[in-house]
Design a protein that fits this description.
alpha+beta; 4 strands; 7% strand; 303 residues
């Protein structure tokens, strides 16, 4: 129920393009021509790092619809679609949000939300989710997605990604420069970085990029608990969200496209450090131990 891995994949692609362009245009050679300029390297790293993250953010909604082949409901074609749109409208109104786009895509049980801002968001559910859960459980899933939008999770993730991107680019080039100097020796003169720099900086960028994903996924897992609590608040009751998570635990969770895996409601996995979602059991336990909403509000109609 989120919107991350497509963002991460797009971010990596944008960073790769920007980094390759910088090398072709001679930016790296400029930074190291007369010794490594640390200040300029940091500024360059921040520009590429945050630039890649924000470009990915701006592309997130379009890429999500393309990757899942989601169909935006412009005009409801049946009762289920009308209920879906109306439920998202009610939840968005409770959260004080503009109405997001609502979409359906074919697939096993899953859902996600994405978008560059609260006023330009998308909530999408799979046909499998609609067919496998009752309406109150689906409403809880939708509330979870709306809570992600309300919390501004995508912007927060973009800022975190921008920071880790900056460190990845900075450290990979700084260490690449040291490796290049070590292999060239003090007596070898050059107008810029050599082959050792190119190879080692790329290798470091890959390694640090993998390590950086652990940081991003940590924050992704944390925001799942917050969105679950937000869903309970929007529904006026934590039980529908608990029931929805339990239902997911008994279903074959739908596999979103690889780049969208972190954007779905289902999560967990063997490689916990790289998982975008906490185990369902942990999320259920957190909801059960939480203080119930102090002022319950009527949940969306689930007839």
């Amino acid at each position: 129920m989120k919107r991350v891995a497509l963002f991460l994949l797009t971010n990596l692609a944008v960073i790769a393009v920007l980094s390759i362009s910088a090398r072709i245009l001679g930016v790296d050679r400029f930074l190291t021509a007369n010794g490594l300029n640390m200040g300029m390297l940091l500024a360059f790293s921040a520009l590429i790092g945050f630039g890649g993250a924000f470009i990915s953010l701006l592309m997130s909604r379009t890429m999500a619809k393309w990757s899942t082949r989601a169909r935006v409901i412009e005009r409801p074609g049946n009762e289920d679609e009308a209920w879906l749109v109306d439920t998202v409208r009610q939840l968005s109104k409770k959260a004080g949000l503009p109405m997001p786009e609502v979409a359906i895509y074919d697939g096993a049980p899953n859902a996600f939300a994405t978008g560059a801002s609260k006023s330009k968001s998308l909530v999408a559910v799979s046909t499998g989710l609609l067919q496998s859960m009752d309406r109150k459980q689906v409403a809880a899933v939708l509330a979870h997605e709306v809570a992600h939008v309300e919390n501004g999770d995508m912007v927060t993730l973009t800022l975190i990604q921008g920071v880790v991107n900056t460190f990845v680019i900075f450290l990979s080039r700084a260490l690449g420069y040291l490796v290049d100097n070590f292999f060239r020796g003090d007596n070898e003169e050059s107008a810029g970085p050599g082959i050792g720099y190119w190879i080692s900086s790329i290798a470091f960028e890959i390694v640090f990029g993998i390590l950086a994903s652990i940081v991003v996924m940590y924050f992704s897992r944390k925001r799942e608990f917050r969105a679950d609590a937000g869903a309970a608040k929007l529904m006026g009751d934590r039980r529908p969200m608990i029931d929805a998570l339990r239902a997911l635990g008994g279903l074959q969770a739908g596999q979103l496209p690889k780049e969208m895996a972190a954007s779905g409601i289902a999560g967990g996995g063997m490689m916990a450090l790289f998982s975008s979602h906490p185990p369902l059991e942990s999320r259920i336990a957190a909801l059960e131990s939480a203080t119930p909403p102090s002022t319950p509000t009527p949940s969306p109609q689930a007839s």
